[in-house]
């Protein structure tokens, strides 16, 4: 049982994908693990998430509509089909009415939605809300944040200093609260000769550049992940498959950990302002070195970590050379256990969850966050 009082927590997930294995992306994995851990600690957790998610209860008001694509080839993580935004607004209106009528007993809202509506519950309903910023600034969320009066019981957390600065530039200040990795799910691997790339297969993650880097180096590359943009996959990735380049599809745990842990090096290739880069921390947890583009928060995730190299974003040649160098270290007997130990020390999910439990407890009790949560737990306020 947790050392803090039992809480009644409403966790609001992003609605685009169901929370279940294999995870659609890092954001879904973070929320799925959060719900599981809070319930294990004895807290009452109500989950508001997409239909088909694990942990959903019987209340229809807590089920969010998923995008309905007319054709599979139109499916995309970056756009919404016609009518989806209207359905989402209706879903949040129904949930707001439920909360307003006190038909859902909640002490605090743990908000991971990418919509502005749950942010406003802190002033409209007086509910304490903790919103985690997982993305670059989104217009709807920025508008909602700017509408909050200073007395609203609301706190913003950002997953990296880079993300916190970006939101601060948009007028939204936050505390830094990095993501974590479950060491029990991501186990130490023995390594192997091949390279690996894993994550959402979308343009901003640019797996096609990882393929080109591997091809230049003459390396074998395995790719694992969900196709989040069918048109991009067909145009940029699929034509490059075959020979030494293999697509494994979406893998759940422990199969995904096995593949990464059996690799010489993991490539991380974002070409956008990556808010955090959970895949980099996950690869290190298996003892696998990481070669990455220095985009967004990736540099923070890898700073000071052993067997990691960052190169300028989009520089395929530099990425291939860095990966080949790290793969050579693997062949020479790189101590993979040391890589994992460093990852566990910095990104232990158990420690992260203890900290977020305190944050939620502080919010529920209306105390000042900096007074009760240590600076090394949540960083310092950006712009404060």
From TrEMBL:
**SUPFAM superfamilies registered for this protein in UniProt:** UDP-Glycosyltransferase/glycogen phosphorylase
Which leading EC class covers this enzyme?
A: transferase
Q: Which UniProt keywords apply?
A: Glycosyltransferase, Transferase
Protein name (record): Glycosyltransferase
Q: Which residues form the Glycosyltransferase subfamily 4-like N-terminal domain?
A: 25-184
In terms of domain of life, where is this protein from?
Answer: Bacteria
The scientific name of the source species is Microbacterium invictum
Tell me yes or no: is Iron among this UniProt entry's keywords: no
Q: Which GO terms describe its molecular function?
A: glycosyltransferase activity
What EC designation does it have? 2.4.-.-
Q: Per the record, which residues fall in region Disordered?
A: 58-87
Concerning Pfam families, the annotation shows:
Glyco_trans_1_4, Glyco_transf_4
């Amino acid at each position: 049982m947790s050392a803090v009082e039992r809480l009644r927590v409403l966790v609001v997930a992003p609605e685009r994908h169901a929370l279940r294995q294999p995870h659609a992306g890092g954001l879904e994995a973070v929320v799925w693990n959060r719900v599981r851990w809070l319930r294990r600690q004895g807290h009452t957790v109500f989950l508001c998430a997409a239909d088909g998610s694990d942990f959903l209860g019987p209340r229809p008001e807590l089920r969010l509509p998923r995008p309905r694509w007319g054709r599979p080839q139109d499916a995309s993580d970056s756009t919404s089909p016609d009518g989806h935004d209207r359905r989402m607004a209706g879903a949040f209106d129904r949930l707001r009415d439920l909360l307003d009528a006190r038909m859902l007993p909640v002490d605090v809202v743990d908000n991971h939605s990418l919509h502005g509506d749950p942010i406003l519950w802190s002033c409209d309903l007086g509910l304490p809300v903790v919103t985690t910023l997982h993305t670059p600034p989104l217009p709807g969320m920025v508008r909602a944040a700017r509408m909050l009066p200073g007395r609203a019981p609301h706190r913003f957390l950002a997953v990296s200093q880079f993300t916190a600065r970006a939101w601060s530039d948009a007028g939204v200040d936050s505390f830094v609260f990095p993501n974590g990795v479950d060491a029990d799910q991501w186990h130490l691997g023995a390594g192997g000769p091949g390279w690996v790339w894993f994550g959402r297969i979308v343009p901003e993650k640019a797996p096609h550049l990882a393929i080109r880097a591997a091809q230049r180096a003459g390396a074998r590359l395995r790719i694992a992940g969900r196709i989040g943009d069918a048109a991009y996959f067909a145009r940029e990735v699929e034509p490059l498959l075959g020979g030494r380049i293999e697509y494994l599809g979406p893998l759940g745990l422990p199969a995904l950990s096995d593949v990464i842990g059996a690799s010489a090096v993991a490539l991380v290739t974002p070409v956008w302002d990556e808010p955090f880069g959970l895949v980099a921390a996950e690869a290190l947890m298996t003892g696998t070195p990481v070669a990455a583009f220095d985009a967004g928060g990736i540099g923070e995730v890898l700073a000071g970590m052993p067997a990691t190299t960052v190169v300028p974003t989009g520089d395929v040649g530099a990425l291939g050379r860095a990966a080949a160098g790290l793969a050579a270290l693997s062949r020479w007997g790189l101590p993979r256990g040391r890589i994992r130990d460093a990852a566990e020390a910095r990104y232990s999910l158990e420690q992260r969850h203890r900290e977020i439990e305190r944050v939620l407890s502080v919010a529920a009790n209306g105390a000042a966050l900096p007074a009760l949560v240590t600076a090394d737990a949540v960083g310092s306020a950006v712009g404060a």
